Every structure is written in C-alpha cells, then in structure tokens.
Structure to design on (377 residues):
C-alpha cells in the first residue's frame, strides 16, 4: 500500500470511529465532500449544518488515532483485510444500502463476498430435526454453488456453517470486532470459516458483543444474500428481524414449515402467512433464485471442471449399509425415532442424520405423532 493510499485509509478509519458518526452520517459526509479526508478538514460550522453531532465535531480536536492504529495493526495479520466503500472488493449489494457500513473488517478470503449467497438463520436452541435438516440443506446448497451466510450464533447458524463447510463456502457476519468470537464455544468453527470463507464485521478490532450490535449484524446478513432462509424460529426471534430486513431490501424470504405443536415453528409459519416461500426441498430455493444464479451455477462449454467440482452426488452413490439397514427396519408401518433406534441398534444421532437425508431425497416422509414412513413408490 502506497503512502497516499495508507493515509486515505487512516482517514476512513478515523471518520468511521468518531463518536456520533454512524453509517448514514458517514454517507452524508461522503456525498457532500467526496472523501473522508476532505470531511475531516471541513469547517466545524459546515459539519454542524450537515447535522453532524457536537461530540463528533469536538473529538476532531483530539482524534482517536490509537483506535486507528489498533485497526491497522490487526490488518497486518494473516488473512486480515480492511475494505472501505471505495474499495472494488466491497460487496455491491451491501454498498447499495443507505446505511451501508463505511468500513468492513474481514478475516479470510475477500473473493467469497462476490459469490452468490443465501442467508440461513434460525433458533439458537433448535430441535434436533431442525439442526440436522439445516445442516443437510446448507451442505446441498453449498455444493450447488451458493455461499451460505449466517451469524455464527449457536443453533441454526452453526448448523448452516457446518453444513456449508462440508461442500463449499460460508461467511459469518459478526456482532463483535473481527478479532473476537461470540459465543466462545464457536472458536474452532470460526477458524474453519476463516480458512474456507470469511468472517466479516463492521465493528473495529476489540469491540465486544453488545445487544444493539445484533440487529445491525442482521441487516448485513440479509443484504449480502440473494435471499434469507429461516429454518426454525419462535415468533419473537432475531431471525425474523433478519427476514424483515430482507423484505425491506428487496430480497427473497424462505421459511420451512414445522409441527403446529412446536413453538419454534411459529415464526416460520408467520413468515409463510405473510408471503415467504414455503420450502420443502432445496429445489424450492434453487428454482426461485435460478434467474440470479444462472451465471454462477450453470456450467458453460469451457468450465467443465467447475461443473464437476460443484456436482452433487446422486443419492444412490451415497447410500451405504446404514441406509439399507434403516429402511429395512422401518417396515410397512410408521415408526418413531425411538423405535428405529431399538430396531437398528444405531445411535440417536446416526438415525436422525440418516432420516434427514432420506427425507430430503423423498425416500421417507414424516407423519403425525413424530413418526416416519417409507414413501409409496
């Protein structure tokens, strides 16, 4: 980075970290002055006339250069990047927001921001079936060329990241600085995401988690993505905030139905009632997004290698002894999860995982009472 570029970046960081300068105020200054450097050199009375708060103007006499230096020091680390709104690598869909973050801190590969993304969000305490289904959907959709974007929370977010990592790329948008992981239980997952995707934050290094950061994070998740898919959520849920942002931003919203007896399905049912697309299989999502995905997931005559790398194995190629064993154990009548565990001798996790894949492939179907049955041929 040349001296001029480094000086310009310092001014971007300084203006972004002045107290009272939010994304909208920052954009106002950019539109009026053209660059952060010119805004910082402007007459205080003019800044006041533009609606800039007194505490931000006052801080110009004692700029927080220590915070700027801390951010620049962080950016010296491996896979660490700082993107401004003027950077060609800054994602265009996010830049179009009126409150787009002026600065993004990224740990990982900036190129994944240019890939087509699908947000998958949901409950922090999901049912086991929702966890398994989310992971399976994320794995399949990632294999089809979608980068899976979520918020690194426990529960559905983690399942989405885990599934995507098995087949493609994933992005985690943080409610903390890029050097912190919240919750702490996801430290290992965050490292894997940085190696196979990206951790993204609008908050500078050292920023701890705060309640008001999570809705701000959610608007970034939805804006980066072609659509938001909610797999399980209560009526009062941050996932519904993400879905609302998606609607406001002109993005698609998808929701997976669940049992009427499951309180964690009510958020999804409310979304479906209000116009979200009901999702029963990954095809429901891919077909809806196909016009936007065409340049990315349709292989041309010269990119057969990409097509081969992204191809999803057929079900028959993935069937092993466990699948045959479980299908045989099901018999002709509906059977519960507990019954299958007893008949097969498999663990609860194994049975749940196999059932999820069989259901996704249309081999079996869930029926009332928490039971499963083989579909009629």
């Amino acid at each position: 980075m040349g001296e001029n570029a480094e000086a310009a970046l310092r001014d971007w960081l300084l203006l972004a970290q002045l107290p009272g300068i939010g994304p909208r105020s920052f954009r106002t200054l950019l539109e009026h002055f053209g660059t952060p450097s010119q805004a910082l050199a402007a007459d205080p009375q003019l800044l006041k006339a533009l609606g800039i708060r007194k505490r931000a103007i006052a801080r110009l006499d004692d700029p927080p250069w220590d915070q700027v230096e801390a951010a620049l020091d962080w950016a010296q680390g491996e896979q660490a990047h700082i993107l401004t709104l003027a950077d060609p690598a800054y994602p265009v869909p996010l830049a179009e927001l009126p409150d787009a973050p002026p600065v993004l801190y990224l740990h990982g590969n900036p190129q994944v921001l240019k890939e087509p993304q699908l947000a998958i969000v949901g409950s922090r305490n999901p049912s086991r079936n929702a966890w398994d289904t989310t992971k399976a959907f994320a794995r399949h959709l990632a294999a089809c060329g979608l980068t899976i974007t979520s918020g690194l929370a426990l529960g559905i977010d983690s399942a989405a990241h885990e599934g995507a990592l098995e087949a493609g790329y994933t992005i985690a948008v943080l409610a903390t600085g890029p050097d912190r992981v919240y919750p702490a239980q996801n430290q290992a997952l965050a490292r894997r995401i940085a190696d196979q995707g990206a951790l993204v934050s609008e908050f500078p290094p050292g920023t701890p988690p705060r309640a008001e950061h999570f809705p701000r994070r959610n608007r970034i998740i939805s804006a980066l993505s072609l659509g938001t898919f909610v797999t399980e959520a209560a009526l009062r849920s941050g996932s519904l905030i993400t879905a609302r942002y998606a609607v406001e931003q002109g993005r698609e919203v998808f929701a997976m139905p669940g049992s009427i007896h499951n309180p964690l399905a009510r958020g999804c049912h409310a979304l479906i009632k209000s116009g979200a697309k009901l999702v029963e299989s990954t095809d429901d999502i891919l077909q809806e997004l196909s016009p936007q995905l065409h340049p990315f997931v349709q292989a041309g005559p010269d990119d057969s290698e990409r097509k081969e790398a992204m191809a999803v194995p057929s079900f028959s190629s993935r069937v092993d002894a466990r699948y045959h064993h479980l299908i045989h154990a099901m018999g002709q009548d509906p059977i519960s999860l507990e019954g299958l565990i007893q008949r097969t001798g498999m663990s609860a996790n194994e049975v749940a995982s196999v059932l999820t894949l069989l259901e996704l492939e249309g081999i079996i179907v869930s029926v009332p009472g928490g039971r499963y049955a083989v579909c009629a041929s």
Notes: The chain has three domains: 1-74, 110-297, 315-374. The longest strand covers residues 103-108. The chain has a mean pLDDT of 88.
